[in-house]
Amino acid sequence: MSTPSQEDYLEAIWVLTNEKGYARVTDLAERLNISPASASKMVRRLHESGLLTYERYRGFSFTPRGRKTGRLLYARHQILERFLTHLAIGTPEDIHRIVEGIEHHFDVNRVGQIERLVTYIDEHPEWWDVFRRKGSS
Length: 137
Description:
Elements: H1 4-20, H2 25-32, H3 36-48, E1 52-55, E2 59-62, H4 64-87, H5 92-102, H6 112-123, H7 125-135
Antiparallel strand pairs: 1-2
Helix pairs in contact: 1-2, 1-4, 2-3, 4-5, 4-6, 6-7
């Protein structure tokens, strides 16, 4: 698969593309709080890995494989945020920071168990309330 850094880029590109319809190196650099040169270098690497198509001075876009990977990475992030939100372990900012630290340790193809649990919690909030009360006793 990809490195954690590559995963962060792909997830950011996924978000930018969905928000704006496209992503540019400058947008990516701003979103990740890095230099445009660093963003450009990683875009070229992702192109070499077959995840993006890139033409100098013309921009980049996902390949089908890159689009699928970006979608899965974004979904993993959202599932983990939903799970930690149910655990009520902090503010939304705290939870986002925690997910940024742990998400790369969860294989995108194996996060389904957590997703099923989160969906069950969403559909059965009374069950979750009982579970949390028992845990605090």
